[in-house]
Structure formats: structure tokens, C-alpha cells
Amino acid sequence: MAYSTRKPSAKKPRxxxxxxxxxxxxxxxxAKKVRGRLVxxxxxxxxxxxxxxxxxxxxxQQKDDxxxxxxxxxxxxxxxxxxxxxxxxxxxxxxxxxxxxxxGTFAEYHKVAERIAAVFALWRAVEDLRSEDFERLRGRLAxxxxxxxxxxxxxxxxxxxxxxxxxxxxxxxxxxxxEFKKPSAKVLxxxxxxxxxxxxxxxxxxxxxxxxxxxxxxKILLGVNCGYGNTDVASLRISALDLATxxxxxxxxxxxxxxxxxLWPETVTALRDHLATRPKPQDPAHNDLVxxxxxxxxxxxxxxxxxVATDFGKLLRKTKVKTGDGEKTIYRPGLSFYTLRHVxxxxxxxxxxxxxxRDLIGHAPPANDMAALYRERIDDARLQAVADHVRRWLFxxxxxx
Length: 401
Description:
By secondary structure, the protein is mostly helical. Helix content is 48%, strand content 6%. The protein has three domains: 23-67, no CATH class; 81-195; 202-395, Intergrase catalytic core (hpI Integrase, Chain A), CATH 1.10.443. The protein is built from 15 helices and six strands. The strands form two sheets. It has a three-stranded antiparallel sheet with strand order 1-2-3. A hairpin with a 4-residue loop joins β1 (23-24) and β2. α8 packs antiparallel against α10 (265-277). Residues 1-8 and 325-331 have low confidence and may be disordered.
């Protein structure tokens, strides 16, 4: 019988942790079985972590290709996903500091960057991405979000990669492939029809107003009186208010379009009562803000402006406006603080002055509207007529004060 002259091998190392994706093979290499075959990722030495970490990084680099049945492609350098996302967020953070975009907008971009990082390995070169990578990203997003939210997410992803090209981080635009696109108009219409009308009835809004505390009551009235959204309310300045004449002049933060809105007596009263008891801001720079968040902080932080929507949602559930009030609970999706803009637009249409309504709600005129280029202002009487029409719908009264 022949005997081997090779010395017994050293003891195989153990996995550094239970969830470590590789196992030590008898050949003293880290390995994993992928699609029915063994793949090796480097030496598994029992006396150090350096080889273990290198094997793990190699697996992470090659995982997507291996699981898809492709030969792993080693990235040939260039800007990585991590570098691109960091550069993009740094650029957007500077725009927040200069007041060119709102913190809420930055927060949305930050969340999209996190979603990209969760699907694409951060070490990968941007130019190495393929259409199937973006198909996988879109599939992940489609499982999480509605069609409308998916459309927004797709657009934000495209914005990030467009930034990479336009800022010179990559030499050519990224090819997203034919499937990485927004849902069709048909899909969006069907989803909207499934949710039903995003609209409150007058008695529902009156019930919500009756149950609201003082700050929220003022916010709701601004929403239905002037078509203000969450960020509009959170960023509103005291200097924009003229409560003596019952007007507010405040450009829409999202677009910078000027807005001038007549305030109802109910809105003026709620604002006066709120300002009389408004907490003192922690930062003197926020003294001009109408609404201050919890503990005296601004509501324009990364997440704080969303509390307008969160608190309003709680109020809808408390008054059973969102869930119904019968033996059978009927959930009404799509109702939120932003629905107040839908109310203002929908009911305001009845005043039959679309130009005045557009000016009040802060929408940009169509690109082919030449008259808008020459129109310097809208008569206050026209703006007042639209506001009065909405007020009659809600309270059944004219604004005579």
C-alpha cells in the first residue's frame, strides 16, 4: 500500500459569524455553491482575517453576475456607485444651505440614494451598470410603491445618474434599458380610479376642523383657503402675512411662483390665536416662521415638515373621515393633507376664473401661454371671488369681513 508523504493539513478555519455567506472548503479556500457549482474566493487561513475579508469582498463583487449565471466582470476602475452618490448628495446639501432647494427635497433624494445602494453594490463602477441592473432596481421599487410613487422614484434615480454624466464623473450617459421607465398613463389612471376621488366633503372638513387643535386648525384652513401643501405651511413666514387686511403674499417654495391669497375670517382668527401662543424658536433665525415644530425647532428639517401630514392623518382617523364610521370599515386611500390642494383646485374651478385660480394655487402657466408672459398681476377682486366661492362651499357663507 502506498502512503502519501504530504504532511497533514492545518485545521480549517471556522466561519467568522453564523451569517457569513462562504464556507471553508477542504482545499482551504473560501467557497460557495452557486447555481449547482462550487465557486472559490481565495485562501481560507486559520490565523488571520485578511484573507477572509478579501474573499468576502470578492464574493460581493461577483455575486450579482454569478447568481444571474454570467461570468463575473471585474470592474475596470472609474467612479463607483458610492462616490457618485456621495458627490450627488454633497451637491444637493449645498443647495439646501443656499436655500435653492428645501430640506424635504434633499430628504427624498437621500432616500433614493439609500435604495440605489441597497440594490447595487457600492464598489461597482457606474459605467459597469447594465440594463438588467436597472430592471432589478425597478422591480424592487414596484413591489414597494404605488404607480405614482414609482414614477417619482424612477425620475429621481434618473436625475442622480444624469448628474454623474453632466458633472463629468462618467464619460457617457448611463443606458437604463427599455424597461426602466415610469408606469404608463393608463396604469396611473387605473390606480387613481381604484383609489377613488381625492376629495373631502364639506361636512367632513368641518368635523376635522372642529376636532383640530389650534396649530393644526390654522394649517388646515391655509390648505383649503389657499391650496397650501405640507411644505408651504412649514415654510410660511410671518412677514408674508397681513392679518389686518386679510391677505398673504408668499411664493410657492417648490417653484418660486408668486402667490397672493385673500384670507377668510376663520383663517385670520386661527392664525392670530396660534401666533399668540406659538412656542419660542430655539434658533433666532426661525423667528419669522409662522409654525414652529416640537420643542421649538423649525418644521423645515429633514423630516419635520412631514409631521404636518402625519398629524393630519391621525386627525382623519380620529374623526373617522379616512376609515368610515359604520359596521363595515371602508378605508379611503389617498386622503392626506395634500388633498386640501385637490379640494381648493376642484372647488375653485367652479368660480370659472382659471387664471385667478392658477395664480392662487401657484401653478406655472403652460409654455405656450403668451398672455402669461405679459400679465403682470391679477386683480384682487378676481382672487377674492375664487376664495369666496370655496368658502361658500365649505361654510355656506360669503367672506364679507
